[in-house]
Amino acid sequence: MRYPIWRLGVFIAVAVWPLLWLYEAWSFALGPDPGKVLVDRLGLGTLTLLLITLSMTPLHKLSGWAGWIGVRRQLGLWCFAYVVLHLAAYSVFILGLDWSQLGVELRKRPYIIVGALGFLCLLVLTVTSNRYSQRRLGARWKKLHRMVYVILGLGLLHMLWIVRADLKEWAIYASIGVLLLVLRVPPVMRRIPRLIAKKAPSVTKA
């Protein structure tokens, strides 16, 4: 396995946040409604990890360092882990494991449906992220995993619906998402190495 220290560092950096938030909730450091804070943080963490995952290919193109691609799958799996924790926290702290309330919640908060659709799409990508699925699906694998753009759109819409009163934070995430999508457009992506080559200082022989 290449870049073991880098992979371990990424693993620790991503794993520590849910543990920290759980500790804060246990120590009553998250205010009067720690359950809702946990739900919100895990949801925002999922979106953040999705954006970071999407940034790995542009960073690889910009720097030429393969380590970015080396942790892309790990970050994608962590993104799924975060959304599972998000759903678990919602089920425990918001629903109180009372599934009869789910219908009421869906009527009052239809953005939950958008989030559920994003979860199902992310589940498909997680299940097919292994090498066996790549071999079985062949060229269709890349087409299937372009669903990540749909997931990003659903995630941003889910967040927009929740924070309608304050769009400043949402605009930051949306702008980063749009930038990453633009960078992944094939003509733009093909130009990135050329732009770096033009800016690189020329070396003259003595």
Name some characteristics of this structure:
single chain, 206 residues, mainly alpha, 11 helices, disordered C terminus
Fold and architecture overview:
With 206 residues, the protein is mostly helical. It has one domain (4-183). It has eleven helices and no strands. The protein has helices at 4-26, 34-63, 67-70, 72-94, 102-108, 111-127, 131-137, 139-145, 147-162, 168-183, 186-199. Helix 2 runs parallel beside helix 10 (168-183). The longest helix is centred in the first third of the chain and has 30 residues, at 34-63. Mean pLDDT is 88; it is low at 202-206.
Q: What's the gist of this structure?
A:
This protein is 80% helix and 0% strand. It has eleven helices and no strands.
Number of helices: 11
- Structure classification: mainly alpha
Helix content: over 70%
Overall radius of gyration? 20 Å
End-to-end distance, in Å? Answer: 41 Å
Mean pLDDT across all residues, rounded?
88
Give me the secondary-structure topology.
Elements: H1 4-26, H2 34-63, H3 67-70, H4 72-94, H5 102-108, H6 111-127, H7 131-137, H8 139-145, H9 147-162, H10 168-183, H11 186-199
Helix pairs in contact: 1-2, 1-4, 2-4, 2-9, 2-10, 4-6, 6-9, 7-8, 9-10
